[in-house]
Design a protein that fits this description.
The complex is a heterodimer. Chain A is of the alpha/beta class. Chain A folds into two domains: 137 residues; 61 residues. In chain A, α2 packs parallel to α3. Chain B has 14 helices and seven strands. In chain B, α2 runs antiparallel to α4, α12 runs parallel beside α13 and α13 packs antiparallel against α14. The chains are: A alpha/beta, B alpha+beta. The interface between A and B is large, with 41 and 46 residues. Chain A: It comes from Streptomyces griseoruber. Chain A: Keywords: DNA-binding, Phosphoprotein, Transcription, Transcription regulation. Chain A: This is LuxR family transcriptional regulator.
């Protein structure tokens, strides 16, 4: 994998962490142009990048991630950030088809197992959005999400975090069939066309993010 | 002030050596140029108005006639310059020029030699506020202006002009802005009045006085010479009225001429002083300095707000690059250590707690940084930042923008954002509202934002410093912030800021090198 992070301390720490979990970090770089170059050279299986990096210290990492995803469809990218923002998440998920993409607060690296699990999820083509983004969205009360019941919103939040129906059922202590029913209801309420289920789940999350 | 050098012609008149000083000649020169100026002006104005009147038939003349009002401007500029010939002291309270014009410095003030330019309070380009304030006694201790290019009147426009201009600089370049500024100024009309007065009344009086007080005595003094040359030694007419025959009478006439010349010198001095006082009242009123000072204060206030905003961004950056990065690294180390600790043991438990603490610290730090300067504002602009502020508000907020906002100057975006945030905080804190609404629009070169709620109203914008500070911030940008909040509600806060959209990926306004680069659209 290729890692882009401008803080030396964190870059080394992340490299150590990922190596420990059996991932090979082929390149660890400190800015967005170097990230693009490294991906071109190494063609990694997954990319992990910070949002705010030199030279502009704005959202170069995010733009690099979006560009990578449009240039190489299917390349899983996990974006880390010091703060989460719906706008960033939406831009990221809009790139490509919304699969194989993750957006997490940097804080999550402290919960090592969960972080690595999220990384695996992204690498396997899943979609992971930080619970903080979800929490920001839950504070909003706007259509069409207003049509969802609180329970359905809970389910959708967990979908956004990249969980399967089984995992959601376990988290909410309900049956998997109940989760399936909620999912169906959510998709209907969000006016999502019947299609491949994974794709519809992603679309639901996107609708969610756009609020 | 050094008593040896009179500061103006009034003072010079009281000196015993007045007749031997250059002052009478200065007064005469002042009146003579004034008379010539007035005569030329009369001819010029008459010609202009005639041409304008004739052309008025084909409408072209109307603007020409209207432009006559502006004739006062160059005349007044010239008059302010001429005031320097017979006055050395300028605005009330400003320090006196210790020297003759452009000559040696006052020996009683050794520091004056170190002055960077002419020691005239209005001429010094380095002190923007000297127009309205007496200088400190020590020339070395004069106030420091941060940037000489920010001098409100331009760095050297008045280097040799003793009287400050009462005009303000137009807010924008171009003829239109200049015209509308000038025509709305009282000074322009006063100066037009002065020009008319000069052309119609003052110059004949000046010419007459010069004839009586200067030319006639000189002619009398020349009587013996005239008698010897033109009169052939027999007879000559003095001033064409009085026939003189013989040298004794001629010398008597010359002696009388000398006496009259002396009296005339005083008359000239008095007339020049009166003329200067009148001119000063019309073309260089004392509030000219005040205007300049207000302009500079406005600018310095804007600089302060800019500096304040730049500082906020620097603090935000430092926290982001420093403490935040280290805390993330710390939580990661703790997380890794927890993996190594025997599961279920006391060490693992402690490490878990430490990890949670570090996580909480990170969350708090994140909120703090967001409060200082939200990154989303820099990255996505005002609309996204307002949506974000609405997301964070405990009271449900509807956000509606008539059309997508363009990116605006950072100072505008920041001021508008903080106004919205403060307004939403007030809604949550005081209004008891169940719902709030933020609406925004950009059009016709101005940004308008409205925050309304369905609360109980009765908000007093004067109470509390939050909105007052923000109103100041908005007014620095020439914007307006208004609050209407009748008892019983609803409360409506409205902010308007004139601004132009920034070009996409244009240069940032902040001078900080790290934020100066444009946002990459890789």
């Amino acid at each position: 994998m290729v890692l882009a992070e401008d803080g030396v301390l964190l870059r080394d720490g992340l490299t150590a962490l990922l190596t420990r979990f059996g991932h090979e970090v082929v390149a660890a770089v400190g800015d967005a142009p170097a990230l693009l170059a490294a991906v071109a050279v190494h063609t990694p299986d997954v990319v992990v990048t910070d949002v705010r990096m030199p030279p502009g210290f704005q959202d170069e990492g995010l733009h690099a991630a979006v560009r990578l995803r449009s240039e190489r469809p299917g390349l899983p990218v996990l974006v880390l950030s010091q703060y989460v923002q719906r706008a960033y998440a939406a831009e990221l998920l809009d790139s490509g088809d919304g699969t194989g993409v993750g957006y997490l607060l940097k804080d999550r690296v402290g919960q090592v197992e969960e972080f690595v699990a999220a990384l695996h999820e992204v690498a396997a083509g899943g979609t992971v959005v930080d619970p903080e983004v979800v929490r920001q969205l839950l504070r909003r009360r706007r259509d069409p999400l207003a049509r969802l019941t609180p329970r359905e919103r809970e389910v959708l939040a967990l979908v956004a975090e990249g969980r399967s129906n089984g995992a959601i059922a376990r988290a909410l202590v309900v049956s998997e069939a109940a989760v399936g029913k909620h999912m169906g209801s959510i998709l209907t309420k969000l006016d999502l066309p019947p299609a491949d289920d994974t794709h519809r789940r992603v679309l639901a999350v996107l609708a969610y993010l756009r609020g | 002030m050094d008593p040896r050098y009179p500061r103006d012609v009034w003072q010079a008149l009281t000196r015993p050596r007045y007749l031997l000083s250059p002052w009478p000649w200065r007064a005469a020169a002042y009146l003579l140029t004034g008379a010539v100026l007035g005569a030329v002006l009369l001819v010029g104005l008459a010609a202009w108005v005639t041409v304008g009147g004739v052309l008025a038939i084909v409408l072209v003349g109307l603007p020409l006639l209207a432009a006559t009002v502006l004739a006062g401007l160059p005349v007044a500029a010239l008059e302010r310059r001429r005031l320097g010939w017979i006055e050395r002291k300028r605005a009330p309270g400003a320090h006196a020029d210790p020297s003759k014009p452009g000559a040696h410095a006052d020996p009683s003030k050794p520091g004056a030699h170190a002055a960077p330019s002419k020691p005239d309070a209005h001429a010094r380009p380095l002190a923007p506020d000297a127009h309205a304030r007496p200088l400190p006694p020590d020339p070395h201790a004069r106030p420091f202006a941060p940037d000489r290019h920010l001098h409100p009147l331009g760095p050297d426009r008045h280097l040799r002009s003793p009287a400050p201009t009462p005009h303000i600089d137009p807010p924008a370049p171009g003829l239109r802005a200049w015209l509308s500024t000038r025509l709305r100024e009282g000074a322009t009309w006063r100066e037009f009045g002065h020009a008319l007065l000069t052309a119609c009344l003052l110059w004949p009086a000046e010419a007459l006085l010069l004839l009586v007080a200067l030319v006639s005595p000189l002619a009398m003094i020349a009587t013996p010479v005239l008698l010897a040359t033109a009169g052939g030694g027999r007879e000559v007419k003095v001033l064409k009225v009085w026939t003189v025959t013989g040298q004794p009478a001629a010398f008597a006439a010359a002696a009388l001429g000398v006496l009259l010349l002396a009296a005339g010198a005083y008359a000239l001095g008095l007339a020049a002083a009166a003329r200067a006082a009148l001119t000063r009242r019309l073309v260089a009123p004392p509030d000219g300095g005040t205007r300049a000072r207000v302009a500079e204060l406005t600018r310095s206030r804007a600089r302060l707000v800019d500096a304040f905003e730049a500082e906020r961004r620097r603090i935000e950056r430092d926290l982001h690059d420093g403490a935040q990065q280290r805390l993330v690294a710390l939580t990661m180390s703790l997380g890794l250590a927890r993996l190594d600790a025997p599961p279920g043991g006391p060490l693992a438990e402690q490490l878990t707690r430490a990890c949670e603490e570090a996580g909480a610290a990170l969350a708090e730090l994140r909120e703090l940084i967001h409060g200082i300067h939200p990154q989303v504002l820099a990255d996505y602009g005002l609309e996204a930042a307002v949506a974000d502020a609405a997301d964070r508000s405990p009271v449900p907020v509807d956000v509606g923008f008539v059309s997508p906002l363009p990116r605006l100057p950072q100072a505008v975006e920041a001021a508008a954002y903080f106004v919205v945030r403060e307004a939403l905080a007030n809604v949550a804190r005081h209004s008891g509202a169940g719902r709030a609404r933020v609406e925004g629009e950009y059009g016709d070169g101005r940004l308008v934002l409205e925050v309304s709620d369905d609360g109980r109203g009765g908000a007093d914008p004067g109470r509390g410093t939050g909105l007052t500070g923000l109103a100041d911030r908005v007014s620095v940008l020439d914007g307006r912030l208004s609050v209407t909040s009748p008892t019983g509600g609803p409360t409506l806060l409205r902010v308007e800021i004139p601004c132009e959209p920034t070009p996409k990926d244009g240069p940032c306004v902040w001078s900080s090198p790290r934020t100066a680069s444009s946002s990459a659209t890789a």
